[in-house]
Amino acid sequence: MIRVLLADDQPLIRSGFRALLDLESDIQVVAEASDGAEALALAREHLPDIALIDVQMPVVDGIEATRRIAADPALAGVHVVILTNYGLDEYVLNALRAGAAGFLVKDIVPEDFLHAVRVAARGDALLAPSITRQLINRYVTQSPDIGTRAVLEELTNREREAVALVARGLSNDEIAAHMVISPLTAKTHVNRAMAKLHARDRAQLVVIAYESGLVSPRDS
C-alpha cells in the first residue's frame, strides 16, 4: 500500500487529488495539510511513502518543507513530489536541490498523476529526459561549480559513468546495458554514488551531474 500525504493550501485542490487517489486499491491518503509546517508535522506523525506538496503555501512554503523533510533522518523514506501550477520554473529547480524526487503540474491528466505517484513510490525520479534538458538549459549555470565538481572525485570511474547516465534519463536496466554490467551492479553504482554525494535520490544526482559539469545539456 502506497501511503500519501497531501499538502496544499487550497481545499478544492486537495479534495480533487484525494478523490482520485481514494479510488485506487493500492494507494491510501493518510493525511492532509494546508501549509508546509503542518505537512512537516504530519509527515513525522504518519511517515508516508509520498508527500505531494504544493510549491507555494503559507507559513512554510513547499521548498522549505521539502528541505526540512529531506534533512530529517526519520523521514528518509518519504519521497517528496512538488505540485506546481506553472510547470518548469526556478521554484522547481530549487525544490529538486532541496530534496524533491520530482514535480507534477496540477493540470496533469488523472492517469498520468496516478502513474507518477507509483513511480515516485518506487524511488524513481519524476524527470523525463526532455524535462531535464529544459530545466538545465534554463536554470543551471553552464560554468561548472568548482565545489560541486570536487565532490565527484569521491566517485570511482564507473560510479561517475553511472551518474552521467542517470542524468541522461537512463533507468538502471538501461545503464546496465550501456555499461555491459548486470542491473544489480548498475543499481549498486548508482546507490554508492548517491551515498558519497549525499544525494537523497536520483533527481538530486541529475542536478549534481549538470552543476558539476559532468554532463552538459548538449550531451542529453
TrEMBL record:
Source superkingdom: Bacteria
Modified residues (4-aspartylphosphate): 54
Keywords associated with the record: DNA-binding, Phosphoprotein, Transcription, Transcription regulation
Response regulatory domain segment(s): 3-121
SUPFAM superfamilies per record: C-terminal effector domain of the bipartite response regulators, CheY-like
UniProt keyword annotation of Hydrolase present: no
Domain HTH luxR-type: 148-213
The keyword Transcription regulation is assigned to this record: yes
Pfam families: GerE, Response_reg
Gene3D superfamilies assigned: 3.40.50.2300
Protein name per the record: Response regulator
Organism the protein comes from: Nonomuraea indica
